[in-house]
Structure formats: C-alpha cells, structure tokens
C-alpha cells in the first residue's frame, strides 16, 4: 500500500467532516468509529483515515471501520504517537508499508486494518456483548433512580412556538437519518408538523429543504447557517444551569432560552413537545438501543428510558421506517412480477386462437367507441 496526500486533523470527527476536502487524508482520534462517522467520512471522499485511537477495540460491534474499508478507504490505526503534536493541516505525508513519513522523514508506524482484522474484532465484540449489556443495564437503572425526579418534574422554559394540539417532528442526526427523513418527507409536506432540530438535526432538515421551527441542543454540532435561519433557539444546559452553548450564540449575536436538564438533548426535545401539549411526536434518527448509545460514548440510557416512559403512546419512532418501506415495495414488486407472469400465457392463448383473437378485437373496438376514440 502506498498513499500520498495532505492531511486534515480533527479530534471530533463530526466537526472534522465539515472541513474535509476530497482526496485529503483524515487524521482522527476516535475510539471505536461508529457508522455515522464512517458515512460522513465516505461522503467527504477522503483518500485514507489515520486514527490516533483504536478504530475497533472489540468492546462492542461497531461497524464504522468495515464501512470505510468496503468503500475503498484505507484505515490505519496509529496509537503509539500523538499525531496531533506532529502533523498540521495541509502537511503532505506518505503512507507506505504502514510507515507514515513527511518530506522523507519518518513520523510514525501504523497498522492498516483489513477485513480479517475487523471480522476477528467483531467476533470478539459479539462474545463480549452480554457483559457490555449487563453493565449497560446496571448503569441505566442506577442513573434512572437518581434522575427520575429531574426528568419527570422538569421546569420546562416558556417558548413562543405554539405546539398545543399540533403534531411535532423531532429530527436527530443519528444512524440512517437521511433515509428515514426521505421517507417522511411527504408527511412533512402534507401535515406540516412543527419541526424541531436537535443540534445537527437542524442541518439535516435544511438538506431536504425544510427549516426547523425550533433548534434545541448543546449547540456544538449545528452549523451557523442553520442557527441563522430564524428558528427559536433553546440551549440544553446542565442541571446546575451552566450552558456552554450560550457563549457560541452570543458570539453570533443570537438569543436563546436555557433548558437545564440531565440526559441527552433529544430526550428534552421530546419532553418539551410533550409538556407544551403536542398531539403527536414523531422522532427521526433518535438513539434507541445499546449500540446507538455506546457509539455516542454513553454507558446507559436512563434519561431516554424515563422520557419515553413519560411520553408514552404520543411518541411514534420513525427510526428504520425506510427499511419497512423498502420491504413493502419489494412485496409490491414481487406481486407485479407474479401478475405479469400469470397474464403472459393467457395473452399468448388469445393471440394464437383465431376465435379468441376476434373476440379480443371486438372488445377493443367496443372500448374505443365507448370512449369516443
């Protein structure tokens, strides 16, 4: 393997992908690369990915590295040296025989991942899954006890957007959010629900020509463009009231309300809609299972469990709805193929038999006369 190109560095992959240019080499520091990060890197058309952490540790079955390799992007793990102290954006490097060099000088030795390495780690991860699940459940239950009063008795800030009696669509930029958003696009156009973007979910809505009525979150992964669209802004603050995201909005001359609460921003977005009297809450791209949460670096899902428990039947989760839609389309396609196959011998008999052929022609003539053709 020999790869040459300019590097672009970023410790947060979700921030780095906004700056990456095609054919650059991405230098990341991302333990257990998740699918969402991998898809973002693939869309950026990077030449290779050098990771200063383990791309797949075997702790749980993260599929990011597999997605990158399947897309033809080399993944090199380099954990022995801090590349962020050695390389700078734009530095041209060469990767040959797993050795990284610049201007002929050796920088570091890496390990290029192959399918065999990944499959071995995935097998290890599957064997370790029961242990991870046990720890995940314990963590969830412990924090659920601590946070139940905070979640169930939240002091929801007053907002100007009217949600009472309205349907609300909450968009999170989670796994498969693009496909799910495409599937519910007709619902948005016809029903016109109130749109809430959770951080980067506001950008996801913009991608498909929609503008968020409300943007809620830490304000760390939403673009300036989305923030300046005129949406009502709500910053997710820590339970003690600290809200680092407010500083960014002040620098952009934007005003916002604070919503102090534990847990994830998507949870408080749902609770906001519920407390403000929404008739239905539809969620796209949210995190719902252990793998989702581990990929976000969370060891439990207490706030999500409590929020969904409180909202109950008002919540409709659209995560994965595109797969159901594709499945139904497949059934329809199979039915049409079967129908055409069944009609073929009948039509053949009609055109072979003189009597039936004449009868068929008479039916066609009668139809033309009836329609005035």
Automatic annotation (TrEMBL):
Annotated keywords: ATP-binding, Kinase, Membrane, Nucleotide-binding, Transferase, Transmembrane, Transmembrane helix
A Pfam family matched in the record: SteA-like_C
SUPFAM superfamilies hit by this protein: Thiamin pyrophosphokinase, catalytic domain (SSF63999)
Gene3D superfamilies: Thiamin pyrophosphokinase, catalytic domain (3.40.50.10240)
Record field: transmembrane: 335-356
Molecular function in Gene Ontology: ATP binding; kinase activity; thiamine diphosphokinase activity
GO biological process: thiamine diphosphate biosynthetic process
Span of domain SteA-like C-terminal: 319-368
Database matches in NCBIfam families: division_SteA (NF040608)
Identification of the protein by name: Membrane-anchored protein
């Amino acid at each position: 393997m020999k790869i040459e190109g300019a590097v672009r560095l970023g410790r947060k992959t979700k921030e780095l992908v906004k700056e990456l240019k095609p054919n650059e080499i991405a230098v990341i520091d991302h333990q257990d690369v998740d699918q969402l990060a991998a898809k973002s890197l693939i869309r950026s058309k990077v030449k290779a990915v050098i990771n200063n952490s383990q791309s797949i540790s075997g702790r749980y079955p993260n599929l990011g590295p597999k997605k990158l390799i399947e897309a033809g992007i080399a993944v090199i793990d380099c954990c022995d040296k801090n590349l962020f102290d050695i390389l700078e954006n734009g530095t041209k490097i060469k990767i040959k025989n797993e050795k990284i060099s610049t201007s002929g000088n050796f920088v570091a030795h890496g390990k290029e991942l192959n399918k065999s390495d990944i499959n071995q780690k995935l097998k290890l991860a599957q064997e370790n899954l029961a242990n991870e699940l046990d720890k995940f459940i314990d963590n969830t239950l412990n924090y659920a006890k601590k946070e139940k009063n905070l979640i169930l008795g939240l002091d929801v800030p007053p907002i100007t957007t009217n949600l009472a009696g309205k349907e609300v669509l909450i968009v999170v930029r989670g796994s498969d959010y693009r496909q799910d958003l495409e599937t519910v696009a007709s619902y948005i156009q016809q029903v016109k629900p109130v749109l809430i973007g959770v951080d980067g979910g506001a950008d996801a809505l913009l991608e498909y020509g929609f503008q968020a009525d409300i943007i809620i979150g830490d304000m760390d992964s939403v673009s300036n463009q989305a923030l300046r669209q005129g949406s009502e802004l709500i910053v997710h603050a820590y339970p003690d009231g600290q809200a680092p995201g407010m500083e960014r909005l002040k620098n952009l001359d934007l005003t916002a309300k604070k919503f102090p609460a534990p847990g994830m921003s998507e949870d408080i977005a749902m609770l906001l809609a519920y407390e403000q009297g929404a008739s239905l809450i539809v969620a796209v791209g949210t995190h719902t299972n252990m793998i989702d949460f581990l990929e976000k670096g969370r060891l439990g899902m207490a706030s999500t469990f409590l929020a969904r428990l409180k909202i109950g039947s008002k919540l409709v989760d659209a995560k994965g709805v595109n797969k159901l839609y594709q499945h139904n389309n497949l059934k329809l396609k199979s039915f049409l193929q079967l129908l055409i196959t069944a009609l073929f011998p009948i039509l053949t008999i009609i055109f072979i038999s003189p009597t039936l052929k004449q009868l068929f022609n008479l039916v066609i003539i009668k139809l033309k006369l009836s329609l005035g053709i």
